[in-house]
């Protein structure tokens, strides 16, 4: 850990005084999830009309930002997100928030090499312990990197943030310029909707592929969590976890004693993650628990790290797959909805692992304005961003089947993907594939061109 040394001992100030440090043209770093400040942000909102061209960088915003709400025309402050949450998406639709394209695991390097300026870091952390460390809680992410670069560091304390063990998962009080005594508001939770029938069908197909000693990465969504629910009752031994997000599904496996990590090469016996968001039960599982390590993104998400654990298994969701195997997981046409996150990096890391597997899962259809549409399409919606390239794609899973695209030609891929589309759309997809030249004349069903 590269330590930042503050110019003077940290001084406790009020939120209004801290907001008074902001000048027009500055860039503020708010971090992500429940690390984003509330008292400071409300105080900034009170004076936002005095400022111009203030930028805020953040990720996965879970609560409305007072400073943004106080400037509905966007004349004074703008938001840049490294990964959209629901609130960021709403602002994006209104032109008030813009996405920074990132592979999540590379963000610490972006701050150390490319992002400038980093004027003021303002994040929440736990109050200092006896050694002067202020724990970030279950959100390590890229915080150490922007603290190293910051011209000023402000910490808003919150004792309600669960204490998360991990490597460099905190900031020492000697690195902090100003402290704001927090209001100890409850940590935001994220509900877990019950799995659909399609989620459960996909989960059964994936769970059958998970072997003893597998090291799991589970993304956000009902399908990945449904896999966890099935594994809880499966006879699979020595599961491990090396993941980006720690969702409720993985924490439930840990609480049931099904996560040993015994066959991991990195951090054997430990659950490794970079952020957690979910229920209060998840936060209670993390709080003070040395079995769970919250580490930085450049450790959890880089493919050369992921691959070191044998049988790495990456399970992630997408919204659309075309007939060559491209996955669009972050946008609907030009409309941005989430982010690249760690999907592409875990797909590559799992594939490179000894015995590893990557699964991209999706329901075969969705409803739009009362009309059922296929998520497997001849071509992605115009303007849609590709998250996982066709060359990287391994297993694709819908409720109608599981196919492996590695080593398959374009016509073979088209046939396989049509076979797991909803039956209502298969004939239409086949006609489109012929029209695009993906299924040339003479191709045998399921076979290569004659």
Assign the CATH class of the largest domain.
Alpha Beta
Largest sheet: 8 strands, parallel
| CATH topology name of the largest domain | Glutaconate Coenzyme A-transferase
Distance between the termini: 59 Å
Poorly predicted tracts of residues: none
Q: Give the overall average pLDDT.
A: 95
- When the domains are counted, the total is 2
The coarse silhouette is globular
Q: Helicity range of the residues? A: 25-40%
In total, the number of strands is: 27
Helix count equals 15
Protein name: 4-hydroxybutyrate CoA-transferase
Keywords: Transferase
Family: Belongs to the acetyl-CoA hydrolase/transferase family.
Domain Acetyl-CoA hydrolase/transferase N-terminal: 12-191
Describe the protein's architecture and organization.
This protein has about 450 residues and is α/β, with parallel strands linked by helices. It folds into two domains: about 10-180, Glutaconate Coenzyme A-transferase, CATH 3.40.1080; about 195-435, Glutaconate Coenzyme A-transferase (3-Layer(aba) Sandwich). It is built from 15 helices and 27 strands. It has an eight-stranded parallel sheet with strand order 1-10-8-6-2-3-4-5. The chain has an eight-stranded mixed sheet with strand order 16-14-12-11-17-22-26-27, sandwiched between helices. A hairpin with a 4-residue loop joins strand 18 (about 320) and strand 19 (about 325-330). Helix 5 (about 105-115) packs parallel to helix 6 (about 145-150) and helix 8 packs parallel to helix 9.
What would a concise description of this structure say?
With 450 residues, the chain is an alpha/beta fold. Residues 12-191 form the Acetyl-CoA hydrolase/transferase N-terminal domain.
